[in-house]
Amino acid sequence: MSVILIVVAVLAVVVVLAVVAALVVSQRRRRLGLVAGPPRAAMPEVLVTEVAQRPTLESPSLEQRLGSSRGVFERLRSLAGVGALGTDQLDVVEEVLLRSDVGVATTQVVLDELRANGAPEGVAATVRQVLLESLTADRSVASHADAGRVPVWLFVGVNGVGKTTTIGKLAHRLVSEGRSVVLAAGDTFRAAAADQLEQWAQRTGADIVRAAAGADPGSVVHDALGRAAARGADIVLADTAGRRANSTNLLDELSKVRRVADRDPGQVVETFMVLDATTGQNALSQAREFLAAATVTGIVLTKLDGTARGGIVVAIERELGIPVKFVGVGEGVEDLVAFDPVAFVDSLLAA
Ligand SMILES: Nc1nc2c(ncn2[C@@H]2O[C@H](COP(=O)(O)OP(=O)(O)O)[C@@H](O)[C@H]2O)c(=O)[nH]1
Ligand SMILES: [Mg+2]
User: Fold this and answer.
1) Distance 177 CA to ligand 2 centre (A)
2) Given the CA of residue 159, which atom of ligand 1 is nearest to it?
3) Does 30 score more than 50 pLDDT?
4) Could you give phi then psi for residue 19, rounded to 5 degrees?
5) Residue 244 Cα distances to 170, 184, 294, 298, angstroms
6) pLDDT recorded at residue 245
7) 271: CA distance to ligand 2 center in Å?
8) Hey, what domains does the chain have and what are their CATH numbers?
9) pTM for the full predicted model
10) Residues with CB under 5 A from ligand 2 (ion)
11) Ligand nearest to the backbone CA of 278
């Protein structure tokens, strides 16, 4: 019995000594920085909440993309609802609308409405209603041709507005819907233009027909149609040059490309004029030049993310009488949206 007690006592002493030795060693290592210190204190609750509210990695909302334009409307959003507006308030409305580039005509309609009926539900609600009433065009996009023909979307517009990028984004959209797409590198002004389109083809899985710099753009489009017909492709997206020695040459060239694209087996079902929203009212004068040469069926307004003057959408549609069908809101492949007036107007005006 006593032997057992002695053994237990010895074991106990050994265990205690081992624990003490371990503690001493670990203290020393910690002092030497060999082991991580105790876990940091938990974040204060306020910080943790902030972290949880940080934007996710998903693509930003339209409201975020149009943040600069939305900022211009801030003063207008804060005007409360009243039966009749004072001169100061009407001045604010006028200034905001003109700064946003919706144009003089639409601004006048809003002011007339506010003078006549006040703003019982708030100034933003009245502006929303007037803007929506002026954005009623048919925005449907044709993607089918007559039997046996290949539908063509033709893209025109001056250099740098975003034609090639828009074609890339649309190719991505069409390919992900399961369509087979052929890109025609009709901007033969510089080799880099076809290289840029080729990168989009590789990125999106679209097919591409290109030729050397200086080649006839009509023949590139012709070859693309031949390829599309032979392979039973669903659609051809044709890029064009945005510059020539002079604008008469450019417009002549576009008419020629269009004639080729519309000849059997091709059929032009949409001609998109691409305009850069950051050029504001200049986009309108550019557009008028192109309208003379091409039968434009829709506008793609790019770079709305890069301007505070997003109201230009309203002015362009009103002045040109051509529907805005897509808007560009960034440089990424997903950054093109079908233009939806309600989503657009709400992203500027909703509280
Ligand atoms: N921020 C922004 N940049 C754009 C948008 N669309 C095109 N871009 C940029 O505008 C520049 C010119 O585009 P590009 O497609 O080469 O124009 P093109 O000369 O008309 O073919 C490029 O740097 C594009 O990334 C857009 O919606 N938002
Ligand atoms: Mg280009």
Assistant:
1) 24
2) 19
3) no
4) -60, -45
5) 26, 19, 16, 23
6) 62
7) 16
8) 62-133 (1.20.120), 150-296 (3.40.50.300)
9) 0.83
10) 163-164, 193
11) 1
